[in-house]
């Protein structure tokens, strides 16, 4: 008979997770963390790394995200800027509402 696998899911706010991992990161880097805190830090970092974001860097200011090679070559000068990889959704124009009541003459 196989051992049952127990899964327990919980949700944590992204800000709360980042705040906690920052606190743990400081303790780990200062050699003040105990083994439980180090394990928690590793687990939180693994969980945060499950969240993927698309980033583009524009290092030659042409408005087009550049390759990682250009980024690596110019990273020392801090000239690269973060650029969106997707265009924002166009905002709809709201229709002006007309009054539904009749005007008195």
Average residue-wise pLDDT: 78
Strand order of the largest sheet: 1-2
Helix content: 25-40%
Number of H- or I-type helical stretches: 3
Order of helices and strands: HHEHE
C-alpha geometry: flat
Low-pLDDT stretches are none
Largest sheet: 2 strands, antiparallel
> How much beta, percentage-wise?
5-15%
Q: Which structural class do you get from the secondary structure elements?
A: mainly alpha
Distance between the termini: 87 Å
Radius of gyration: 25 Å
How many strand units? 2
Explained architecture:
Helix 1 (14-29) packs across helix 2. The longest helix is centred in the N-terminal third of the chain and has 16 residues, at 14-29. Among the domains are: 14-48, no CATH class; 53-86, no CATH class. It has a two-stranded antiparallel sheet with strand order 1-2. The protein contains 3 helices and 2 strands. By secondary structure, the protein is mainly alpha-helical.
